[in-house]
Hints:
CATH architecture: 2-Layer Sandwich
Radius of gyration: 16 Å
CATH class: Alpha Beta
Structural class: alpha/beta
Strand content: 15-25%
Shape: globular
Largest sheet: 5 strands, mixed
Strand order of the largest sheet: 3-2-1-4-5
Number of domains: 1
Number of helices: 8
Amino acid sequence: MYAVIDVETTGLDPRTHRVVEVAVVEADADGSIVEEWSSLVAAPGTDELGQSALHGITRAMLVGVPGFAELAPELLRRLAGRVVVGHVLEFDLAHLEMELRRAGISTPDLRPSGLCTRQLARRYLPPGPRTLSACCRAAGVRVEGAHTAIGDARAAAGLLRHFIAAGHSPEWEERLRVALALSWPEVIEPADAGALARPRR
């Protein structure tokens, strides 16, 4: 029902910066995690990556990992038909959409059917900072692997489950109906799409 996403990037601007790690945590109707997927993503060039001090990914770690175009079919399979969730969802979607565009893939606009846990925090959590770590502290969600794509996606999934348990709005069902009605491109999934993924060790 839900696909909680996170990306780590070389910077903030999707027009000039690149995705270097992507993760999707799939959750069921009550927010329980049912499946996870993540991979490092090759970035063009040989210069050192921006934001390495934050996410810990170096150029050496990307040697031999798949490029975004190779990972795109598996990524789209995990997003299609689900409500896409993220903490500051607009940031993640903007970077994913730009990478997909570079790969020659056009996807539907996921914003009308998506959920942003930072925005939801205004409804479900007491006043305070709205960073992912701060929201998790307020909700009692344990955070492991902060600033890794899979760690942050798991944390956002924990927030989602907390919000669902607090009584989610009927509008969420409408977002699912919108998500199910979206038209996705026909991208052939490689036979070894799962094997392509290169998570951090």
